[in-house]
Amino acid sequence: MAEMISSAATGVLGSVMDKLADMLTDKYNLARDIKQGIRSLQDELHTMEAMLPRLQDKDDDQIDALAKDWRSKVRELSYDIEDCIDRFVLNHSHGDGGSTANFVHKAIQMVKTLFKDRGIAEEIRRLKRLVSEQSERGKRYYDINQCHLASSSQPVPLDPRAPALFQEARDLVGIDAPREEIISLLRCEDKEHKVVSIYGIDTKKLLRDILSQISKSHFDQSQMLETIEQLIRTVKECLKDKSVSAWELVRSALPRNDNGSRIITTTRIEAVAKSCCTGIAAQMYQAKPLSHEDSQRLFFKRLFLSGDDCHPDLTKVSDDILKKCCGLPLAIISIAGLLANRRKAVEVWVNVLRSIVAAVDKDSPIDKMKRILLLSYVDLPHHLKSCLLYLSVFPEDYPIDCRQLILLWVAEGLIPRQDRESMEQLGRSYLNELINRSLVQPTKVGGHGATVKQCRVHDVILEFIVSKAVEDNFVTI
Length: 477
Known about the structure:
The protein is mainly alpha-helical. It has 20 helices and six strands.
């Protein structure tokens, strides 16, 4: 939580700094005293911006109430400054020759309490006073000389092992047996109308693989999958925020004609799966977690060229880590992505294991996975946190054009201001790092395997991102 709030505050501060710099350009033709006020405001904000990253290295329970309050004040003040700048730019664009008097007149009419008698100069002085107060508060709690912004100047290449973990579901270890078992349930010769209810983790991925396998011999595969994906999206939108009883309405619309029809439902919750089977011929199937052997294969595939490359001491620690992952593929991939960015040393892996143990003790499988995702999120540098949270604006299963995503990051001020080409290269580096950490899934990779053209976010990761983004007011859903 602390890391997310600090990241959001840092992200909006970066956007504010860029907009203040833009106000100093000739296109606004501001008076000298106003420009001096803006530069002074920039200096104070730079000081606060340097303090925030230190909070990201601490958990919420390690930060006292005063520091939390300061962090919150900085975030809200940043939003206020950004709103003020946006109003100024809007009114200036409607201005008559950019006259200061004309600007003040229109601003008074539109914003009422803002830009009163002394116009923009008075507003800047007010903001500077508030910023100075918060800056001084921050200095009382933190030694600014020890604050360092960790931002690598070296571009991060795409790790070729990362996309390999996100190949089609049929290639993922541990999926063959459950796929064939469910297909046999669907293909049984019983002509009775029947529901097959699949519950557990990653049921959607399993369902896609099942439909792909069946469609190879019965239907036009691409057309069938596209139709089913659209149907899933439509039904999910219809049932969003509805109770389990909504299933009764859906079931009543399904034909019971004894033509061997099969209805497949997927859910993470066993009680929901049971409710779908009530009063109708049905079979339930629990999507089983990966075996320890398959978990180990998936884990080592991300970190080593082969399992034999793992030192025996690391193998022992990895076994303990995998036990805590409970055979959940997404949890395994996430922890492997976290460790891929660290030294392959026993003490490093043991520290990660301790964090996992503290986070997931006595939780349900879905809660364990979300807490493991939180560990991966906490490990991100602040600039990547903001970029990851931005992905909350995309719908589930939406194919994201990578270049378009990078340009959106640039437009939102999440990439440090440089020339356009450099900003796009830096954005590409940020995206590669999120993929390397297994937080973003590449779905279309360039011919040479070095550039990802299209990506998506796993539905569980998206839920996590959305909850974090909404909780901190990063976006409004």
